[in-house]
Amino acid sequence: MSALRVTGRRLVELGAPDGSGLLGDLRALIEQLGSGEADAAHSFATPATFKALTQFLESYKRNVLIPHEWPAIYRAYLHTRQGECQELIALDQSLANEKALAPFADASRRIGQFQLSRLGPLRGERLLARYIAAIDERRAHGWHTLVYGLTLAVYSLPARQGLMHYGHQILRSYLESGAAAFSVSDEESNAALENLLGDLPRELDKVLNPAL
Fold first, then answer.
1. pTM > 0.70: yes or no
2. How far apart are alpha carbons 189 and 173 in whole angstroms?
3. Given this model, what pLDDT does residue 41 score?
């Protein structure tokens, strides 16, 4: 069992309604999903209609969340539980080469490194200290997905619950902000959200159990 596990402690900030904590800080990443910078570099079109927004989020879910972000979070979670710092750093380095993650790289680093700074009392733990040192030495980036997985492990939160919470939060937040911008009815927004989230449990099973 990793020395980082803190039995009985609960990361209240994970989904705090005031926007604090890692999922609150994902708002910066959500904003970058449709940013002009990402559009210019990767030919993403800023959604002009609510239908275009839902199509964009479906593409994000299929091409980024499920194949890249969820596996990165889960691998970071497992490495942290096993005290595997070198493997965590190698994973961090490998993500820099993932083209699908490039549009979100700047926001991901900012969010991840900010969250590491908030783990104050745990910074003396060996794995965490070594990972932070690697970031300071520019041998690692501190991606928000890896920090999220690390945080789940540090606070002994269930991986499935944390991964599902991540997927729901980022998709729901962006969809709801778009629904307000396009003056979409609650019924239409809720239907779109249900379609967007409906297959996440099945897809998460595949991430957690690749042999299935």
1. yes
2. 12
3. 34
